[in-house]
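Q: What residues go here?
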C-alpha cells in the first residue's frame, strides 16, 4: 500500500497509544468494527478522509495532524499558492490537496480533489461523515451519487449536500476530474 497511507496508519497507532486506548475502545468510540479499525491502523487497506476526520473530531485533534503529521499554526490567515497545498494520495485514483492545512481552529476543511478515471462498470465507493460538504467542479466531469440519486456535474457546477447521506463519485469520459471539496462540521 502507499507509503503515505502507512504513515497515516502509524500516526493513528501513535494517537491510540498516547491516549492509552485499546483498539476496541477506538473502534467503539468511532463507530467501526474492531476488524475495520485494525485494517485502518495496519496501513494495509485504503480509507477515506472522512474516516480520519471522524477520528480527529472524536479525539480533539486536527485532520492535518493525522494526514500530514503537522499541527496548524496560523490564526489570522493561511495562504496556499497554486499547486503548493499539502497533498496526500489515498489511492492511485484519489489525491487530496489541503488548502488550509496551516490554519488553526478552522471550521471547514477545503481540498482540491483529483480523481482519476476508473474502468467502466466500476462501482461507486460510498462514504458518509458528519456535517455538510460543498463540491465545485474545476475540470472534467463527474458522476456524484448521493443517497442513490445520480447527478452529473460539469465544470463550474457545484453541489452542497448533507454528507451524512451515503455519497461517492466517479470521473467520467475516461478523463481526470478535479474539484474543490469543502467539508464542514
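A:
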Amino acid at each position: 500500500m502507499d507509503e503515505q497511507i502507512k504513515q497515516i496508519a502509524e500516526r493513528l497507532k501513535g494517537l491510540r497509544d498516547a491516549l492509552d486506548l485499546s483498539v476496541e475502545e477506538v473502534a467503539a468510540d468511532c463507530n467501526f468494527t474492531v476488524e475495520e479499525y485494525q485494517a485502518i491502523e495496519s496501513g494495509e487497506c485504503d480509507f477515506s478522509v472522512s474516516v480520519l476526520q471522524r477520528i480527529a473530531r472524536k479525539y480533539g485533534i486536527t485532520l492535518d495532524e493525522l494526514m500530514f503529521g503537522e499541527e496548524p499554526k496560523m490564526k489570522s490567515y493561511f495562504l496556499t499558492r497554486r499547486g503548493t497545498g499539502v497533498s496526500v494520495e489515498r489511492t492511485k485514483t484519489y489525491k487530496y490537496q489541503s488548502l488550509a492545512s496551516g490554519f488553526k481552529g478552522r471550521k471547514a476543511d477545503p481540498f482540491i480533489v483529483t480523481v482519476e478515471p476508473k474502468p467502466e462498470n466500476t462501482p461507486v465507493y460510498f462514504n458518509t461523515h458528519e456535517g455538510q460538504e460543498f463540491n465545485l467542479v474545476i475540470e472534467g466531469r463527474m458522476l456524484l451519487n448521493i443517497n442513490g440519486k445520480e447527478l452529473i456535474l460539469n465544470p463550474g457546477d457545484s453541489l452542497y449536500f448533507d454528507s451524512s447521506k451515503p455519497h461517492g463519485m466517479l470521473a467520467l469520459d475516461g478523463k481526470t476530474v478535479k474539484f474543490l471539496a469543502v467539508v464542514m462540521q
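A: Context that may help when evaluating the design: The longest helix spans residues 3-18. The CA atoms of residues 108 and 184 lie 4 Å apart.
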